[in-house]
Write a structure and sequence with these properties.
164 residues, alpha/beta, seven-stranded parallel sheet, globular
Length: 164
């Protein structure tokens, strides 16, 4: 039996745009429907919670990698909770534990995770309206950073990465 494919969805917590929350929840559901596992920062805020909520509602497996030491800080939608106490340092755990990284929206924390994904040569997909972020990261790794407008496109890119 092969190991489950883990898709890391990174995005803003506080201040996440409504469109990013909608996209993240839909993406979480689509990932679950494929039988893949959804991984986020695990908190009760923003893209992290929305993606896990979508995955859980669709019957999927979820993982939350918390920045704090307290597992009670996790959203109810996280099946597996890893309390790191590492704050932003936990971003490397998010990246290394994922087979593919998706940036849903853009903020400083998300940009740091995307930068780590590029450095670690992880397949990366950006779904953000932040044009400067898209341009910057695609210029760094044009062969590994893809741009998507909708969650369905992300699924197609993930399947392409799986074949390559």
């Amino acid at each position: 039996m092969s190991k489950p494919y883990v898709i890391g969805i990174m995005g803003p917590g506080e201040g996440a745009a409504a469109v990013d929350l909608e996209r993240a929840e839909k993406l979480g559901a689509l990932i679950a429907q494929k039988g893949w596992t959804t991984l986020t920062g695990g908190r009760t805020k923003g893209v992290m919670e929305a993606a896990l909520k979508g995955a859980k509602k669709a019957g999927g497996q979820t993982i939350g990698i918390l920045p704090t030491k307290d597992k009670n800080d996790a959203t109810i939608y996280a099946d597996i909770v890893v309390a790191t106490g590492m704050h932003s340092g936990r971003n490397i755990i998010n990246v290394l534990s994922s087979d593919v990284i998706v940036g849903c929206g853009m903020g400083a924390g998300t940009a740091s995770e995307i930068a780590l994904a590029v450095k670690e040569k992880k397949p990366t997909i950006l779904m953000t309206d932040n044009q400067a972020g898209k341009t910057f990261f695609q210029e760094l790794a044009p062969d590994r950073v893809k741009i998507a407008k909708m969650p369905e496109e992300i699924i197609a890119f993930i399947e392409q990465f799986m074949r390559d």
